[in-house]
Amino acid sequence: MPKAFKQDVVLTLALAYVNVSRDSMAVTLPDFIKGCEVLERALKLLQEEGANSLALDLQSQIDETLEEISPHYVL
Q1: What domain of life does the native source organism fall in (predicted)?
Q2: Which residue among 17, 22, 24, 42 is least enclosed by CB atoms within 10 Å?
Q3: Cβ atoms 48, 71 nearer than 8 A
Q4: Is the pTM above the cut of 0.85?
């Protein structure tokens, strides 16, 4: 698989994880555990496979989000 194509697939999958996480935290009783777990999967995928600037920006945003919601995840 060409590298650029693979990066596109990885980025698309990571964005899908972010969307699932957002949906799980947007309900009346947010599921912070599921939301954090899915974000962590997206982050791990980007760290292992994503190398372009969009992936780096998304990693940074996911990291910041995890820092913000981690207290809810622990409780």
Answers
A1: Eukaryota
A2: 22
A3: no
A4: no
Q: Give the C-alpha distances (Å, rounded to integers) separating 56 from 3, 59, 67, 69.
A: 16, 5, 17, 20
Structure tokens at 40: 């962590």
Return the HEC string of the chain.
CCHHHHHHHHHHHHHHHHHHHHHHHCCCCCCHHHHHHHHHHHHHHHHHHCCCHHHHHHHHHHHHHHHHHHHHHHC
| pLDDT tens profile 6-55 | 888 999 999 999 999 999 988 888 888 899 999 999 999 999 886 678 78
Q: Hunting for tokens 């910041």 — which residue is that? A: 64
